[in-house]
Amino acid sequence: MRNKIVGSPEEALADLKDGDSVAVTGFGTSYGFPVSLLVATKEKDVKNLTLVTNGLGAVGQLRSMLLVASGQVSRLVAAFSWRPGPRTPADEQIDAGDLEVELVPQGVLVERMRAGGAGIPAFYSPVGVGTSIHEGKEIREFNGRQYVLEQAINVDFAFVRAYRGDRLGNLDLRGSNRNFTPAFAKGARVVIAEVDEIVDLGEIDPENVGLPGIFVNRVVKATVEPDSVRPALRRPKDTAREYNGKPGWTRLEMARRIAEMLEDGTYVNLGVGMPTLVSNFIGDRDIILHGENGILGYGEQVDGDRVDKNIFNAAGEYVSILPGASYFDSVEAFEMARGGRLHTVVLGAYEVDQEGSIANYSVTDVKKGGIGGAMDLIAGKQTLIVMMEHRDSKDRPKLRQQCTYPLTGKACVDVVVTDLAVLRRSGATWTVEQVADGFTTEEVLELTELDASPVPTPA
Amino acid sequence: MRNKIVGSPEEALADLKDGDSVAVTGFGTSYGFPVSLLVATKEKDVKNLTLVTNGLGAVGQLRSMLLVASGQVSRLVAAFSWRPGPRTPADEQIDAGDLEVELVPQGVLVERMRAGGAGIPAFYSPVGVGTSIHEGKEIREFNGRQYVLEQAINVDFAFVRAYRGDRLGNLDLRGSNRNFTPAFAKGARVVIAEVDEIVDLGEIDPENVGLPGIFVNRVVKATVEPDSVRPALRRPKDTAREYNGKPGWTRLEMARRIAEMLEDGTYVNLGVGMPTLVSNFIGDRDIILHGENGILGYGEQVDGDRVDKNIFNAAGEYVSILPGASYFDSVEAFEMARGGRLHTVVLGAYEVDQEGSIANYSVTDVKKGGIGGAMDLIAGKQTLIVMMEHRDSKDRPKLRQQCTYPLTGKACVDVVVTDLAVLRRSGATWTVEQVADGFTTEEVLELTELDASPVPTPA
Predict the structure, then answer these.
(1) Looking at B111, B194, B292, B317, which residue is catalytic?
(2) Which of A65, A71, B130, B395 has the most CB atoms within 10 Å of its CB?
């Protein structure tokens, strides 16, 4: 009788050895992470691992960072190798040359793992073409557009987390917590699923098996409690920054302006950070929100009793769901983006420049940074709205002649909403559509490097 | 209020015009076909269509053949352009040069449509490399293996069929009837879903939306009854063919021998035709059967009250399901195959030759034929068992020095079970492991072109 259930995380990891590659799922909240397997891997003290993961998490959390902090990882393939905040062991090791990093846009990461599991060694991708992330890779034109050749990723092990599992390895995935599980499992030689509950065959409805058992080699009951679920909603700060001694718009005012720009009947992705505030101004309008972790049709941010640990947006914020919502994995979420099904994407940014290029990832090299899913989200034919402060924390302009940070995308921004103005681009021509009360267009433009003009007065 | 529901198939097709490309889903039984949309397209009398579909079905059925018979199709992209039986309008039009055909292996067909919807213009595939199907295409080596560059397919319209749908376009897909629906929808500009039932928002559980509404543009209630569901199980003929005046094994005896070869704990695909008979000899053994339409863990063939019109294998035979079964779409089904998750594939064949190459599709050119999913199924690292008669209907050997029909795969057959013998290959060396009662190894080999030797007697 086939029985993939093993007695403990240690037993599940019996053949994990030095030099192996391990893909670790999880996104946003703590629930979807295979925490027992991470702890057991740390205790096993295997070395020289290649780690494939979305991000490392913070020091002290039960996340992939555990294995980096313990010096077990020599190579990292991730969408985030860095996050704002105190320096981490990853920062130290990268700077010392002890941790090699390959930063991969989030949607490309899951697609490459999925390809590895689908017998597809390489595919052409529109994501990040023209940015520094692809230096040295083959670029090829199809139908007049440039694409980059992406190679499949195959790993020795995948650690995934599921709600329930059975002895054939069938997994029951829940809510928007599916995220990387199917793709990472497919690309692995040995898939170990950590589950909340082991159930009898047939308990998981055949219509709703999130990952068929053929992709899973071992099932183990979780032995370590996840980190505590984020206890309460983080209420946004809403103070206005001052420029020339006068207040600009608050973040909520910016968010409301963006909500007003969204058209009814559209599908919209709100990027992590400020853009998620826009969700508070949608109300009962006919706008469907998309999260790249794998959710369509989410509503407002929730806390307390309204939190379902399996339902969160791509920022990891617990959200309500609206009638007609659906869940899917990140592979399908990014199909929607690259395939052009999203009408509008709202992103935060460090800089936007004259030609409409955007820089929204974190650090000035491709080793230490957080690329996330932004490059993937803007690879479709969507309208791109950028929401950012008018000047940075060192009072430098964020609207530039040319971006100084590494690009997320070239000539793709349609509208910028700052705390001082709304600007719209056509080619390399920018028009100032609105400015904050008490400011003139000239005053606002003096605080940028951009060449722009006011909306022409009707004749 | 977003409302994708339209009043009639005619209204749903209002903007379908001459020269458009249309992808039509459906596989096996009649239930999964968008019959109302096919009938309405026929009545609309648009011309010069490109039709993307698995196969045409028979004349007189409510299938894609309707549109070919009415002369509305000028180009066909399909896994089957031909089927055994009387000549069809497709045969006539192909011979007359009025119907251009691109035959595509079934798994590649769904993957190319999926790529079209995922923003991926092209990908490298292991399927059918070394066969005539890819003449003129780019071949490239990755990790020591050859792959062919496959281009995405995008179409103007997809016609899909679902059990239930709501006003946001969310579809409820059922059982092994998912098949081509997600992939074909993703690759289309306008997706029209024909549904049994239109339901209120929220009636479809967000955990079990088969295709999220973002991929669907119009939902219409079916107005035409599907063809009658196949009424009863076709019981196999089980007479033995005679060679040299003596009976060989019957088909059921061949099937039983193959069942005995299957190892416990494996995942097995049984090809359409004779191989499905093997399922009758598996009983309660620990063998999990895979169907490329999208089913894992099916059991015996069923009829009468046991038929669920949504549960069938890749041969279109209604089957039982076993505890721990799961359903998925054909994209995922072929990931399992190409990704190497199947241990054994059993195929019928026209010919197998000395180097272990197999020819199992129908006609001698790449215009009129039925390639099906065989090339895709053997692209993994599985054991390939061929089940076929020892000689063809014209009494020519089917075990050849070199295949005379177009190849399905090169040097990939591990075992052949005919109605006279069991032969096993290693490189270009074949060993006769067993012969039918009353036959000698020499006698069996004289009825082939193959060089083979008996199993050496232990010293």
Answers:
(1) B292
(2) A65
Give me the pLDDT at residue B60, please: 87
> Does the predicted model carry a pTM greater than 0.90?
yes
Helix residue ranges per DSSP H, A28-131: 35-44, 65-69, 89-96, 106-117
Q: At A130, is the pLDDT very low, low, confident or very high (cuts 50, 70, 90)? A: confident
Q: Is A144 within 8 Å of chain B by CB?
A: no
Contact list in A for residue B147 (CB cut-off 8 A) is: 121-122
Residues 80-139 (A) with a CB less than 8 A from some CB of B: 111, 114-126
Of the candidates A151, A166, A326, the beta carbon closest to that of B212 is on A326
Nearest to B387 by CA among B279, B278, B275: B275
- Chain A: nearest CA to B132, how far in angstroms? 20
Give per-residue pLDDT as tens, B225-264. Answer: 888 655 556 666 688 999 999 999 999 999 999 999 999 9
Give chain A's length.
Answer: 459
A198 in B contact zone (CB under 8 Å) = no
Task: Find all residues with CB under 8 Å of A429, minimum gap 6, and list them.
Answer: A452, A453
Contacting A residues, span 150-189, partner chain B, CB-CB under 8 Å = 151, 166-168, 170, 174-175, 186
ipTM: 0.95
What residues have CB less than 8 Å from B204, skipping those under 6 apart?
B164, B166, B170, B171, B172
Per-residue model confidence as pLDDT tens digits over A233-255: 666 668 899 999 999 999 999 99
Structure tokens at B444: 């069996």
Residue B183: which of B334, B341, B378 has the closest Cα? Answer: B334
Catalytic status, residue A292: yes
Give the Cα separation of B372 and A371 in Å (integer): 41
Neighbour tally for B3: CB within 10 Å: 12
Nearest to A124 among B120, B174, B286 (CB): B120
Q: How far is CA B245 from the centre of its chain?
A: 36
What pLDDT, on the 0 to 100 scale, is given for residue A459? 56
For residue A347, what are the β-bridge partners? A386
Please pick, among A111, A150, A194, A292, the residue that the annotation labels catalytic.
A292
How many C-beta atoms lie closer than 10 Å to residue A427's C-beta? 9
Query: Which pair of structure tokens corresponds to residue B179?
Result: 């098949």
Amino acid B248: pLDDT: 97
